[in-house]
TrEMBL record, chain A:
Protein name: DUF5317 domain-containing protein
Parts of the chain that traverse the membrane: 36-66, 140-160
Pfam families: DUF5317
Top-rank lineage group of the source organism: Bacteria
UniProt keyword terms in alphabetical order: Membrane, Transmembrane, Transmembrane helix
UniProtKB/TrEMBL annotation, chain B:
SUPFAM superfamilies hit by this protein: HD-domain/PDEase-like
Residues annotated as domain HD-GYP: 235-430
Source organism: Brevibacillus ruminantium
Record protein name field: HD-GYP domain-containing protein
Keywords tagged on the record: Membrane, Transmembrane, Transmembrane helix
């Protein structure tokens, strides 16, 4: 998960003077929990992982849709959409670029022999390779991410700012107003 | 005439809604192969980050907000080619589509025009490269111009279709709004690209600093311009109220003519519009009408409100109101542009009017217009001691006076304007007693 991104976001929010006062009300949190459970199921039943991951993707999309009044959720959706394209065009698993993955301190054996529940190997025949996990991210926790993940990280950063009562409105930024919506 | 217009509109609709979108799909499809290749992924990621950044860093202008995306896209085309420009356009469109409630058709058309612009510039760049003699700096400048022009033309076409406006007019209006800043951003992007090409990423630091400074300067400049505009608006409103109050106070002294100035101003404005004067002149004539009788302030009450016939001496005094009003406004040092309306609205084309006996075109246009509306209102308005004339008779009088008392062309226009109104509308205007100008406006429009 995005532990390091979330920690950095909290740090930034603290520096900006944010504090947790009241949490914004999210709807249908059950969908979020359900999708996490399904992800766990996928880990336990690698043979069916494609199906589990796909269903969990649909559930999480539902969660985003129900909470779409928050801008952060809409940014998550961009990332979700790009990742979903990559995963569904490659039979339910996210291809990962072995060249980049070799720089990670993990065992790549399960990915290579197809037992990993989440990732497959990026080959010449993979579809939409530019949306798959091809970017090596060295900082804090080294990982290989996709372009969709960039949006998910941005969404996570914005969500944490909101939780700390210092929301940043991208729409207002775009309109050339001050970015802070409320203190 | 009608079928031709709708045919033109239909053609526009097909070109915009189908042509743009099909072109976008084809260009996207051709770029897809470029995105597939491994050595391009790093660039795609870098430009994704740049696009996210630039989507939310607008440059504020007085009437529009420009985002920096075009500059990013342009630098991408120069450094790498059409495919990266298209990528940026797609990413931006995705962000906007998810973030803002967009109309899918308009969004598709918009991405269509952008992608077509990118493709055109990219193709032109590849063609220019074949000439060894062309310096890249000059070709960048040329490409920036092409980018701006194609973007403007296609965007204008889309907007003119969706808002049912004329294409060329839309383009002109848009060009007026942001050309200079737009080109500045593109030229900066071009220069930045060449610097990055030669020196790596370091020049981006001063470039960014320059950009941030520019947007800061713009922001300040335009916010002060806006404040100034607000002030101007306030002053205009104040003037308007002040003049209306003046008119009301003149009318209040003269029991015969409640709302007279307002109505004269109204008819004056209608004539001015009918002869196609620009809107600022039209407004001037309206205020001229409001103030035309201001000199009556200096006329004694017993003369002004005398029931029955005036003696020649009294009539001479009444005539003085044109000159008195002129003097008042002249000394006030304000509204000098309205002086002709006040001094000369009782002049006649044949030179037998007062105070100066001006002839024909020597009488200022404003005064010639208001002479007609003043005479008309004096005839049709009810007075305490007599009913107003029927409109037809009053128009007959105006027609009879055309060429002697009134400017014949203006008289003709005025008669046309009055005849176009329905009976109820006419009644509303003639009965209007100057309480609020709003009612008059609402009654007519």
């Amino acid at each position: 998960m995005l532990l390091d991104v979330i920690c950095v976001s909290f740090l930034v929010a603290l520096i900006r003077g944010g504090r947790i006062k009241e949490l914004p009300k999210f709807y249908k949190v059950g969908l979020l929990i359900g999708s996490l459970v399904l992800q766990a199921c996928a880990a336990f039943f690698p043979s069916l992982s494609g199906i589990f991951i796909s269903i969990s993707y649909v559930l999480i999309l539902g969660f985003f849709l129900f909470n779409r009044q928050f801008e952060d959720m809409r940014i998550f959706m961009v990332g979700w959409f790009l990742n979903a394209l990559a995963i569904w065009s490659n039979r339910g698993k996210m291809p990962i670029d072995l060249e980049q993955a070799k720089r990670l301190p993990y065992d790549l054996e399960p990915v290579i022999n197809g037992t990993n529940f989440k990732h497959s190997v990026l080959t010449e025949s993979s579809n939409l390779p530019f949306l798959t996990d091809v970017i090596y991210m060295p900082s804090i926790i080294p990982r290989v991410i996709s372009i969709g993940d960039i949006f998910i990280m941005l969404g996570a950063f914005l969500l944490v700012q909101r939780l700390m009562n210092k929301p940043i409105s991208l729409l207002q930024l775009r309109e050339g107003k001050s970015y802070a919506t409320k203190s | 005439m009608q079928p031709k217009v709708s045919l033109q509109r239909m053609t526009k609709g097909i070109v915009v809604q189908i042509g743009f979108v099909v072109a976008a799909i084809l260009i996207l499809y051709s770029s897809l192969f470029e995105w597939q290749s491994r050595e391009h992924w790093g660039v795609l990621v870098a430009y994704t980050l740049l696009t996210i950044l630039s989507t939310f860093t607008p440059v504020r202008l007085s009437n529009t907000i420009l985002t920096v995306n075009n500059a990013v896209i342009f630098s991408g085309i120069l450094l790498f080619g059409t495919w990266i420009g298209v990528w940026c356009a797609v990413i931006e469109a995705l962000i906007i589509a998810f973030l803002v409630r967009v109309n899918p058709v308009k969004a598709a058309v918009n991405i269509g025009q952008l992608v077509m612009t990118i493709w055109t510039v990219g193709a032109l760049k590849d063609w220019l490269i074949t000439f060894d003699s062309v310096s890249p700096i000059l070709s960048d400048l040329f490409l920036a111009l092409v980018y701006w022009f194609v973007n403007l033309v296609l965007c204008g076409l889309g907007i003119s279709y969706f808002y049912n406006k004329d294409w060329v007019g839309t383009i002109k209006e848009m060009a007026k709004g942001f050309t200079s800043t737009y080109l500045l951003l593109l030229i900066l992007a071009g220069v930045g690209s060449r610097l990055v090409e030669s020196y790596g990423l370091m020049p981006l630091i001063p470039m960014m600093a320059a950009f941030v400074t520019i947007s800061y300067v713009f922001h300040h400049y335009y916010s002060s311009v806006q404040k100034l505009q607000q002030k101007v608006e306030e002053i205009k409103t104040f003037n308007h109220r002040f003049l209306t109050t003046m008119a009301a106070s003149i009318d209040a002294r003269d029991h015969y003519t409640s709302g007279h100035s307002q109505r004269v101003a109204y008819w004056g404005r209608e004539i001015a519009r009918a002869i196609g004067l620009p809107s600022d002149k039209v407004e001037e004539i309206y205020f001229g009408g409001i103030l035309h009788d201001i000199g009556k302030i200096g006329i004694a009450d017993e003369i002004l409100n005398k029931k029955g016939k005036l003696t020649p001496e009294e009539y001479d005094k009444i005539k003085q109101h044109t000159v008195i009003g002129y003097e008042i406004i002249l000394q006030a040092g304000m509204f000098h542009e309205l002086l002709p309306a006040i001094r000369s609205h009782h002049e006649r084309i044949d030179g037998k009017g007062y105070p100066d006996g001006l002839k024909g075109l020597d009488i200022p246009l404003m005064a010639r217009i208001l002479a007609i509306s003043d005479a008309f209102d004096a005839m049709v308005a009810d007075r305490p001691y007599r009913k107003g004339l029927p409109v037809e008779d009053a128009l007959q009088e105006i027609r009879r006076g055309a060429g002697t008392q009134f400017d014949s062309e203006l008289a003709e226009q005025f008669i046309r304007v009055v005849n176009q109104l329905s009976r109820e509308e006419l009644e509303t205007i003639i009965q209007h007693d100057g309480q609020t100008e709003k009612q008059l406006q609402e009654a007519i429009h």
